[in-house]
Amino acid sequence: xxxxxCEYELKRTSLQSIxxxxxxxxxxxxxxxxxxxxxxxxxxxxxxxxxxxxxxLNSKREKTEYKCPNCKAALESLRYEDSKVKIxxxxxxxxxxxxxxxxxxxxxxLESIIVKQNSSEYSKDALEELKEIVTGPENRASEIKDxxxxxxxxxxxxxxxxxxxxxxxxxxxxxxxxx
Length: 179
Known about the structure:
The protein folds into 2 domains: about 10-115, no CATH class; about 120-175, no CATH class. About 40% of the residues lie in helices and about 20% in strands.
């Protein structure tokens, strides 16, 4: 496979234990279908529940001059959620091209979401993840993990927003441990 940007031969490499193809010249990375999600999930377990499907119908896409290194179809450019990162995706084989450092920018963007959310937003997300246990796109075990991750983040956010209640709960559990 050749780099869609500079046409160097792509080299197989490992990113977060996921095998991807990287350009030795521009350091762009080609992710086959679902590899971007897997690499993101392997980077930070708290990010697993934040899913982005670049091939949703409502994603605004623009044709590019670049060709898919896998199937040679025209790549389409779109923004990764509300971040400033533009990715190139193949509508045919569903692979994704990221330019140098864009994977890191995506991870930073997702981590900023986790930090900024308040307990009310996490409560809504927990209900959504609970629903996805039955209706979600991933297998049931994966959806349960996502739900538990959001519950943990909700717990941490509640403690941060209510330090006096968190302190009381900790002292109470020391006096009267519940096992």
